[in-house]
Amino acid sequence: MRGTSRTSIAFWIGFVILTLVLPQFLRTGYLINALIVTVTWIIFALSFDLSAGHVGTVSLGHPVFFGLGAYVTALAAPALGLDYVGSVLLSMLAMGVLAYVSGIAFFRIAEVTFAIGTLGALIIAQLLANNAFEITGGPMCTQGVSRPVINLFGLTSISVTEPIEYYYLLLPLLFLTILVYRRLAHSRIGRAFAAVRQDEVRALAMGINPMRYKLLAFAAGGALIGALGSFQAQYITLVCPSELALSYTLNLLIIVFVGGSGSFRGVLLGAIIFTVLPRILETVGNVPPAYQQLIYGVILLLVIRFLPDGLDSVIERVLARRRGVSREVSDAA
Amino acid sequence: MPIEVAIFIEHIINGLTLGAFYALVTLGLSLIFGVARLVNFAHGDIFMVGGYTLFLLLNLSGVDLPYPLIILIVVVITAIVGLLVERVVIHPILNQSWRVQAVATLGISIVLQNLALILFTSDPKQTPTPYSRQIIEVMDIRISVQRLIVLVVVIVAFVGLQWFVKRTQLGKAMRAVSQNREMCQIVGIDVQRIAMLTFAISAGLAGLAAALMAPLFSVTPTMGLLITLKALAAVILGGLGQVNGAFYAAFLLGMIEALFGGYVSYQFRDVVSFGIFVLILFVRPQGLFGRKVGL
Amino acid sequence: MPRNGAQPLLEVSQLTKHFLGVTALLDVSFDIYPGELLSLIGPNGSGKTTLFNCVSGFLKLDRGQVRFKGEDISNVRPDKIALKGIRRTFQDVRTFQEMTVLENLMTALQQHQEENMIERVLGTQRIQQFEHAARERALELLDMVDLRPWQHMQARHLAYGQRKLLEFVTALMPDPDLIMLDEPAAGVSGEMVDRMKQHIRALNAQGKTILVVEHNMRVVMDISERIVVLDYGRKIAEGTPSEIQTNELVREAYFGH
Ligand SMILES: Nc1ncnc2c1ncn2[C@@H]1O[C@H](COP(=O)(O)OP(=O)(O)OP(=O)(O)O)[C@@H](O)[C@H]1O
Ligand SMILES: [Mg+2]
To answer: What pLDDT, in 10s, does the model give residues B196-248?
Structure first.
């Protein structure tokens, strides 16, 4: 805030341009799909971090919004005759409302009990998806979700099939997520988030209603993840109960806590490491997924042990030192 | 005896064994919670480690170990795993926030699960003992001997644990630490050592549960999660770190599961037990800590 | 001290609070008038902090009533009470440890009545002006207690006495109508006690209404206009410092039975 300075404006312009032109350099569908995975996890993790990193309410149930968001699009959107934008908005709205309403109940329980309760809710949702064959197809999945179609004023419509088209379809959601994240986390609201995370009692004494901010972050995150689920359903054209798996939560924890919770840069870094590293391991060393997960688990434990604020804290320290040096220089001048 | 009655009694016995099994797992979880104020999300994964240890011991080529010895070895090995986990991961974060602790124990869970996946693949492994196929039939009621063993051993283990906590030096210290940690530090009880031993005991109990119960179903790398959650459900149902309460709640949970699974819907039995647990959370929002926002 | 018929700012009447078997407060009544500095004293465990918690909404009352500016605020949520213009500090100093000193102060102004959530998300011009004004005020307050050099340091790096000062100015940040201080001079050095005393006095001289709990009798007798004494949750005396000093019941409560 101190400087919505020239450097930060330059950074964002650069960021937008980079995301726009990046696929042009990645010729193959394989690489573009990899890029889509990276962006997906960035969106997912930023939305999760709003609650876990900023307000401090670590829910283990966030994949519910992803999976149900996908099911809503797969099952309800065709019945309503919605196109891509409509279906994404529908999932977004549905998951936003679900997050808000469930939040009212779940935020009555605090701290680790909240984590346990949301874990219970996730398992329930997954068991239901697995066993309600008639609706979800159970383990056989909901198949044949239609590919995205965008209606242009009822005149003409575009259908999307190529990876690169999918990428540009996902990009607006990335920008929206970043915008929401920045607006919430780096504003006066962000300070209230931090207050609630650090000391709820004192926050109350200052006139901050913790419930309100917990709900705000939870609902905003839930809505964004719901939209992401909708995209995913139309990208994979398949929705399975495994979209509601705890493994997603574990991935979120790895990304957010290895990168640095409560920090945009940290989460971005975490998501990129998490999605790019396996590609490298795969191509270079042919390391199978179980080994990769094992490596992540070990990295997570190491980071928690030795860098409790994540990798981002290292960057922060380096930057702070340079800033300190430059300040000294300017003071001397 | 009418067949309906026989089936009912079979369900009851199934419920009791399930309950006994949950009780063992739950005991370990609530011991750790009491002594270290820490919720161990990797507790079920220790069970899983016990399951694979059992699998290895049963398949040792050339050696035919007696089942009681196998049980003992499994318990010892899981206890050692628990000890290692405590030393390497838990110990340094004992005084950190619940957030860090939750993420760390979930990290342990990731590591253990994927180790198992690498070593044993995701194919379910059967661990039959000489007793799991053996059925006794009393007045139309058919019970596997393995289930009876589970019941007996769990009751013995519970009585033994009671004795241990009430009568032994270490047990008394454990109780003291869970009641008032600060005071114990002042009086010079080595809280660190107690926490370490509690972890070992807790893991050993999970191993015992695995050695007894795994023969009744199969072992997979990801089985730990549901077990952790069942145990957490029992801890919360049983009330605020009450070891005895959690013990009975575990039996209640097993019974509900067996009866609902037997008579209403087998697929949805877990949905019901977790549903009850989540509802209880809402009724008793203070949850494990018994601490609401306040002063 | 009823000042020429003015309405009391805070009216506490027949406040009663029990904890499992302990009667923390029993039928405690007193008023505070605008501009007054009232001290609440009593031996350890006599219910002073409990009374703070009841007035500021952190504890439900068992019986009795609290009125602020004539409005019944019994059992109203703490955040709402804070927004009505009562700010308090805590006996066991609470600052936001991971925030900088400046952010701690800025957070206290977070909930300004005039802004709404949408404006805040958008960060409108008005919000920016508001932020600017808030920063100015924060720096002013930091100057007052000589904490300005530490403004960008995280609160956890401050010394205990500095954290007490920080909590004190944080309570002043929104310019509340009633300031409640729970043992502002406890556990700090002699020099810091004097500084705290000066600050409280200066604040009162500017016309602020203040309710203080304090054990340091030198401070209490120096700054108070009026004193209420609690013992075992009951009000046993009320009066000016000199009246309290000579009160037999008070002597007994403090020095033996
Ligand atoms: N949350 C609580 N639960 C149970 N008992 C409590 C609680 N808070 C206070 N008490 C009891 O109520 C009584 C009054 O406590 P309180 O903290 O109000 O005293 P105090 O006057 O502030 O004491 P001190 O001078 O030590 O700060 C004490 O007996 C205390 O043990
Ligand atoms: Mg007090």
So the answer is: 999 999 999 999 999 999 988 899 999 998 899 989 888 887 765 566 777 88
Instruction: Enumerate residues lining ligand 1, CB below 6 A.
Output: B 295; C 19, 22, 24, 42, 44-50, 91
For residue C79, the chain A residues in CB contact (below 8 A) are 203-204, 206-209
The residue type found at C143 is D
Check whether B293 has a pLDDT greater than 50.
no
Q: What is the pLDDT of residues A46-71, one digit of tens each?
A: 999 999 999 999 999 999 999 999 99
Beta strand segments in B37-120, E: none
Smallest Cα–Cα separation from B109: which of B45, B66, B54?
B45
List the alpha helices (DSSP H) in B41-126: 43-58, 67-85, 98-120
Domain C1-85+176-257 homologous superfamily, CATH:
P-loop containing nucleotide triphosphate hydrolases (3.40.50.300)
Distance CA A85, CA A148 (A): 9
Answer whether residue B29 shows pLDDT above 70.
Answer: yes
Q: Which residues pair with C31 in a beta bridge?
A: C11
Q: Which of these, A248, B19, C128, lies nearest to B11 by C-alpha position? A: B19
**DSSP assignments along C179-248, one per residue:** EEEESTTTTS-HHHHHHHHHHHHHHHHTT-EEEEE-S-HHHHHHH-SEEEEEETTEEEEEE-HHHHHT-H
Q: List CB contacts of A104: < 8 A, sequence separation 6 or more.
A: A211, A215
Alpha carbon distance A289, C65 (integer Å): 64
pLDDT of residue A2: 43
Could you tell me the distance, in angstroms and rounded to a whole number, from the CA of residue C26 to the centre of ligand 1? Answer: 13
CA of C176 to the centre of ligand 1 (A): 26
ipTM: 0.90
Return the half-sphere exposure (C-beta side, CA atoms, 13 A cut-off) of residue C194. 2
Q: Whose CA is closest to A258, among A294, A302, A292?
A: A302
Residue A147 carries which DSSP code?
P
- Residue C242: Cβ-neighbour burial (10 angstroms; 0-12, 13-18, 19+): exposed
Residue nearest to ligand 1 atom 1, measured at CA: B295
Residue A239's DSSP bridge partners are A142
Planar angle of CA C230, C231, C233, nearest 5 degrees: 80
Q: Is the pLDDT of residue C124 over 70?
A: no
Sorted by where each begins, the domain ranges of chain B are: 3-235
Q: Work out the average pLDDT over B83-108.
A: 92
Give kind and range of the element (H or E) at residue B136. Answer: strand B135-138
Size of interface B-C (CB pairs under 8 A): 6
- Parse chain C into domains and list their residue ranges: 1-85+176-257, 95-174
Residue B89 has a pLDDT of 93
Among C15, C17, C28, C48, the mutation site with the greatest number of ligand 1 atoms within 8 A of its Cβ is: C48
Tens of pLDDT along A266-299?
999 999 999 988 888 777 877 788 888 899 999 9
| Cα distance between residue A300 and residue C21, in whole Å | 47
Residues 32 through 51 of chain B touching chain A, CB cutoff 8 Å: 39
CA distance B2 to C155: 74
> Are A202 and C90 in contact (CB < 8 Å)?
yes
- Are residues A206 and C108, on separate chains, in Cβ contact within 8 Å? yes
Question: How many angstroms does the Cα of residue C50 sit away from the middle of ligand 1?
Answer: 6
